[in-house]
Design a protein that fits this description.
The protein is of the alpha/beta class. Helix content is 43%, strand content 21%. Bound molecules: iron/sulfur cluster.
Length: 368
Amino acid sequence: MPIRKTGLYLHVPFCRNICAYCDFKRVVNDDRLRLMWMDALKQEIDSKQDILGQCYFDTLYLGGGTPSVLTMDELTIIMGWLKPYLFTVKEATIEANSEDIDDQWIDGILRLGFNRLSIGLESDDFNQLMAMRRKSNYQTVKHGINRAKAHGLTNINVDLIYGLPDSTMEKWQATMKHVMDLDVPHISMYALSLEENSIWGKNHVKPVDDELMADMMKQGIQWLHQCGYTRYEISNFTKNQPSLHNLHYWHYDDFIGLGYGSSGKWLNHRYDHCDHLMPYLKGNVEWMMIEETLDDIRNDYIMMNTRLKQRFDFKVYNDVFHDDFYQRYHTRLKQCKIKGYIDYDRDGLTMTDYGLDCQFSFLSDLLD
Ligand code: SF4
């Protein structure tokens, strides 16, 4: 079996409190549930030894939920279980609540091999943070980042959300200005999307209107560019350190997901875990393969790769799918170029900024 270069994602489902917009798989932190989850996770890791042993992991990502709610002892135990598979990892990211970050915590994660930190700020507006039910704020995020930098941990991402209820361009500008002052190499900027299972979704809270949403996106991108950030993916901007782990998703590489809230892709087949935490805690740690047609896989590949500013190389696609991308799509490529979504030649295409802004429309024109 070939050694496969890929990423390892571990989903930690616990959060200190539940944010109003959040629809992820997460539960309120609980000591007893955490112990049960550790047992189930160990069971999953043990049952997948063969597959884990065949992977050449160059990235690790602990996300959630909130991995920083784990105690350092728990984190150390988990990293011990994974250690046999992690010796080739170049980038190891951990998501954290800014309130959990102090010198001791940073020291601990550095000892465990983490070299990248991802922190959610979302907004710096006090009322918006209160409405979102978030405990962190600009000051705690700034403090966390300063502690990390003081220990030499500089590869840091900050998450932002635009289009929050009650937003104005002035508030958005103030948030962006403060974020620039943090001087981190990576910023993720997402439009608020309200799923019906979130607290806001259930209460029929609405984001700002479409026009303001679009203006906030455009303005946000412009400010980021002015401050030296390059847009390398629809919602992701960096000065010089893109997320190597997320690039695995966007390149549609295989990746392994562990933990009930994760999905993965192994030998080009996507898999999921059981939908709820309780069955997982009771030992249902199996991977459930997702049925997909070749067309589904091909379309997913195109959808993920065209999220990137990086050139989409037709030869790579042709080798993966034994197909001829240019032959298959050349008429539609021409239309997409006329609409301003892409530039292309016989060997590849590059998304324009406009194409990234409305990738959904581009995909409809290309694939439907
Ligand atoms: S947004 Fe993040 S921190 Fe908030 S509840 Fe969801 S997973 Fe937890």
